[in-house]
Amino acid sequence: MEITWLGHSGFRIEIDGQVLLIDPWLTGNPMFPEARKQEAVAGATHVLVSHGHFDHVADVLEVAKAADLPVLGPYELISHWEKTEGITAMGFNRGGTVMAGDVAVSMVPASHSSSLATDHGPMYAGSEVGFMIKGAEHCIYFSGDTDIMADMDWMAEYYRPDIGILSAGGHFTMDMRGATFAAKKYFDFKTVIPCHYRTFPLLEQSAQEMIDGLPGVNVIEPQVLEAITL
Fold it and tell me: What does pLDDT average to over the chain?
């Protein structure tokens, strides 16, 4: 299995014969070299969307339409795009599990907000969510944009993820201290990958606090387009 950071909260996960793109923001992302866009999306089989904010959906429709990829995500948002954009849709909701090939994708809660930008202001885009992704003898918790929440307790016990991809930039989500606290209090991760950081000066710039705060856990500071093999 390979996990590749696309900058900010975007990831490419190659797992059990599938290539999942999560929250791809490739155009205008300060962390992502646009000249390598085709490399990032090559061979993709599915697109996962955690919520409607621009820094998570900017390239979803273009990428999905170009290769007729199914888009998985919150029912209201995905149904809206199915009607207005003609995408191949797989909308579901918290508590639901859908299959991407042999990979099980379960939708779990997050604590944030979700909207699409319009000429008339923000438009409701359904619930903000995270995902539990099971395949290749691993369970990955992709937190999406979230704060610490008590739901992490049952999510950890029920899904037992061994890999955490955690928002940790602060201001809009948990900061590095909060993500470290959540990982320590609720989960038994073997590997943690921080995200939603370094993109702007407003956000956290280093994961050193997480590295220091999670002894015995493999905390990996990702580099854009450098695959992490697990």
Answer: 97
| Residue 24, domain member (yes or no) | yes
Nearest to 192 by CA among 216, 158, 226, 227: 216
Q: d(Cα 87, Cα 207) in Å, to the nearest integer?
A: 37
Q: What total of structural domains would you count in the chain?
A: 1
Which strands make up the sheet holding 163-167, listed edge to edge? 97-100, 103-109, 129-135, 138-142, 163-167, 191-195, 218-219
- For the entire predicted model, the pTM comes to 0.97
71 class by beta-carbon count within 10 Å (0-12 exposed, 13-18 middle, 19+ buried): buried
The segments of the chain whose pLDDT lies below 50 read none
Alpha carbons 40 and 118: distance in angstroms, whole number: 28
Could you tell me the CATH number of the domain that includes residue 48?
3.60.15.10
Q: What are 103-124's pLDDT values in tens digits?
A: 999 999 999 999 998 888 998 9
Could you tell me which of 191, 181, 165 has the C-alpha nearest to residue 213?
Answer: 181
% pLDDT > 90, the chain: 97
38's enclosing H/E stretch is helix 37-41
